[in-house]
Automatic annotation (TrEMBL):
Residues 211-308 form the HTH araC/xylS-type domain. PANTHER family: ARAC-FAMILY TRANSCRIPTIONAL REGULATOR (PTHR43280), REGULATORY PROTEIN POCR (PTHR43280:SF10). SUPFAM superfamilies: Homeodomain-like, RmlC-like cupins. One of its GO terms (molecular function) is DNA-binding transcription factor activity. The lineage of its organism: Bacteria, Pseudomonadati, Lentisphaerota, Lentisphaeria, Victivallales. This is AraC-like DNA-binding protein. The keyword NAD does not apply. Keywords: DNA-binding, Transcription, Transcription regulation.
Length: 308
C-alpha cells in the first residue's frame, strides 16, 4: 500500500511531523478508493455486541467513525471483541460502540491514519499520528472540514446493515458504501477551501503548559474527550501541577474547563439531535445521570429535560 504514504507529505523526522497535505493526496485517495472497490484491503466492522452499553471506564461516540490505516498498526478493544488494523485496512466503528485504541507498532512514530468522523452537522476527516516512539494513543494532527450535512452519518449508519449477511455480494455492497463515503470526502476536500491553520499568539502572562493543554483539548474535541492525566502526559508534567498552573492562568481547574467543554457540547447535541439524555451524557463521559443533570443545571440554569 505504498500509495497511502502520499496521503502525508513526508514521514516522521524525530518528533516532528509536517501535516500539510501532499500534492498527490487527491490521486492517492482516488487510487485507494479504486482498490477498495476491486476487493483489495480489508473492510472490518465489529460485532454489535455491547452497543450502547454503559461501562464505568469506557465511552462511546454518538456518530460513526471510519478509520483508514495508512502506516503502523492499531488495536481497537470493544466490550466483546478486539480488532487490530494495519496499512490499507478500513475499520468502521458504529455509533454507540464503547472502544479503546492502542497503537501496536514497535515504533509508534510510524503510526498514521485518517479518520472520517460522520457527525450530521460538522463532519470531518482528521489526520492522526503519534509523536513519541513509545506512545500508545493516537493524536489528532489536523482536522479537515467536510460539507456539513447528514450524508456521511446516514451512509455509515447503513454500512453495517449491508454486512448483515456473509457473502461476496454483501461484501461488495459494503465496500461500495465505504468507497462512496471516501469519494465524497475527496470531492469535499477538492472543492471546499480549507481554513488556514490556527495561529496561536502566545500570551506571555500564561504558562506555556497551560496554553499547550488548551491546544491539546481543542485538537481533540469533540472526537475524543481526553482526561486530565492524559493531557498532563501530552504536555509533559504531572496532573496536579498542570491543574494548579491552569487555575492560576484561567481561573478554573483543568477538570472544570474540560467539563465546561463537555456540557457545551452536550447542550448543542440536545438542541440539534434526537439522542436521549442518557446517551448524550454517556457519550460525553458522564455515567452518573443525576450528576450530569445537576452540573448541567448549574451551567445553564435549566435541566437537560427542558431541551426536549
Amino acid at each position: 500500500m505504498e500509495l497511502l504514504d502520499k496521503l502525508f507529505i513526508r514521514l516522521p523526522d524525530g518528533d516532528r511531523c509536517d501535516d500539510r497535505l501532499d500534492p498527490e493526496f487527491d490521486p492517492a485517495l482516488a487510487a485507494f478508493i479504486g482498490l477498495l472497490q476491486s476487493g483489495r484491503g480489508r473492510l472490518l466492522i465489529p460485532r454489535p455486541d455491547g452497543r450502547w452499553e454503559k461501562t464505568p471506564t469506557g465511552f462511546y461516540h454518538l456518530f460513526s467513525e471510519l478509520f483508514l490505516q495508512v502506516r503502523g498498526r492499531c488495536r481497537f478493544r470493544f466490550l466483546k471483541q478486539e480488532i487490530e488494523i494495519g496499512p490499507g485496512d478500513l475499520l468502521l466503528v458504529p455509533a454507540g460502540m464503547v472502544h479503546e485504541e492502542e497503537i501496536t507498532s514497535p515504533d509508534c512514530r510510524e503510526f498514521r491514519n485518517l479518520v472520517l468522523m460522520a457527525t450530521d452537522r460538522t463532519p470531518s476527516l482528521h489526520l492522526a499520528w503519534c509523536p513519541a516512539r513509545d506512545g500508545k494513543l493516537p493524536r489528532i494532527r489536523r482536522r479537515l472540514m467536510l460539507d456539513g450535512n447528514a450524508f456521511y452519518a446516514d451512509l455509515l449508519k447503513a454500512l453495517p446493515l449491508a454486512r448483515s449477511g456473509d457473502s461476496a455480494e454483501t461484501d461488495r455492497i459494503s465496500r461500495t458504501l465505504a468507497a462512496a463515503a471516501l469519494a465524497k470526502a475527496r470531492l469535499d476536500l477538492r472543492d471546499r477551501p480549507q481554513p488556514a491553520e490556527r495561529v496561536y499568539e502566545p500570551d506571555p502572562s500564561v504558562n506555556p503548559l497551560s496554553r499547550q493543554a488548551k491546544h491539546y483539548l481543542a485538537d481533540n474535541f469533540p472526537t475524543r474527550f481526553p482526561d486530565v492525566p492524559e493531557i498532563a502526559r501530552a504536555v509533559g508534567c504531572t496532573p496536579n501541577y498542570l491543574s494548579t498552573i491552569f487555575r492560576q492562568d484561567y481561573g478554573m481547574t483543568l477538570k472544570e474547563y474540560l467539563n465546561q467543554l463537555k456540557f457545551d457540547y452536550a447542550c448543542s447535541m440536545l438542541e440539534s439531535s434526537s439522542f436521549t439524555i442518557p446517551e448524550i451524557a454517556f457519550s460525553c463521559g458522564f455515567s452518573d445521570i443525576s450528576y450530569f443533570t445537576r452540573k448541567f443545571r448549574e451551567r445553564f440554569g435549566r435541566p437537560p429535560s427542558s431541551y426536549r
